[in-house]
Design goal:
Distance between the termini: 37 Å
Strand content: 25-35%
InterPro entries: FliN-like_C, FliN/MopA/SpaO, FliN_T3SS_HrcQb, SpoA-like_sf
Strand order of the largest sheet: 1-2-3-4
Domain Flagellar motor switch protein FliN-like C-terminal: 19-91
Shape: elongated
CATH class: Mainly Beta
Keywords: Cell membrane, Cell projection, Chemotaxis, Cilium, Flagellar rotation, Flagellum, Membrane
CATH topology: Surface presentation of antigens (SPOA)
Order of helices and strands: HEHEEEH
Protein name: Flagellar motor switch protein FliN
CATH architecture: Roll
CATH superfamily: SpoA-like
Family: Belongs to the FliN/MopA/SpaO family.
Structural class: alpha+beta
Largest sheet: 4 strands, antiparallel
Radius of gyration: 22 Å
Length: 98
C-alpha cells in the first residue's frame, strides 16, 4: 500500500487529542474586598470580611487573567455533597482564545 492512499491526519484533531489531556487551573472569583490596612490589622478569627458582591450575583471563571465563563455557586450532591460547584450560565468563545 503506498502512502498516497492513506488518509492524511487532521492537524486540528491531533492538536485536540493532545491538548484534551492537559490539565488547566480555573480560578473562580466570588468578589473582592478592599479594606484599609488598619481594618485588616484588626481582623480576628471569625471576623467577616465583606465582599463587593451579593450572594446571588454570578461568579466569574478565569484561566490566568482571561474570563472564560460566568456561573452560579451551588452545593454538590451525592458523593461530593458538601463541596461547592459552579453551574455555568455564560461561556466565552474558547476557540478564539486558543
Amino acid at each position: 500500500m503506498d502512502d498516497a492512499t492513506l488518509p492524511s491526519p487532521d492537524p486540528a484533531s491531533s492538536t485536540n487529542a493532545i491538548l484534551g489531556h492537559v490539565p488547566i487551573e480555573i480560578t473562580v472569583s466570588v468578589g473582592f474586598a478592599r479594606p484599609m490596612v488598619k481594618d485588616l490589622m484588626r481582623l480576628h478569627r471569625d471576623a467577616v470580611l465583606p465582599l463587593d458582591r451579593r450572594i446571588d450575583d454570578p461568579v466569574e471563571l478565569y484561566i490566568g487573567d482571561r474570563l472564560i465563563a460566568r456561573g452560579e455557586l451551588q452545593e454538590m450532591e451525592g458523593d461530593q455533597a458538601g463541596f461547592l460547584g459552579v453551574r455555568l450560565t455564560e461561556l466565552a468563545n474558547l476557540d478564539e482564545m486558543l
